[in-house]
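Lab manual, section 2.4: Encoding a predicted structure.

Procedure: take the sequence of the chain (101 residues), apply the prediction step described in section 2.3, and record the output as structure tokens. A sample record is shown.
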Amino acid sequence: MVLTNAPQVALAAACIVIAGCTDLKPIQAHMDDLQSQVSQLQRDMAKASSDAAAAHDTASTAASVASGAQNTANQALATAQSTMDATNEKIDRMFKRTPSN
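Recorded output:
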């Protein structure tokens, strides 16, 4: 049974030897570059998230202001209609008077 693991042990030992002989500086530089890119992406994502939250807040405020403006316009319309109805009623009463006075 020990002999069946011998090729695997030999392969692992060969990998360790080859890795020990390899210059790791280029790999380390590449790893450092990747880490820098990941850090920049994390900062970019945090800023994008913050910008999205600010945009959401602005949109909510705009919707609230628009709703208030709609309510004010509705009140103005109701007041104008009421005033117009009262004016029409006065005009109707004025023309319904008999000229006997």
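Check your result against the sample. The chain has a mean pLDDT of 86.
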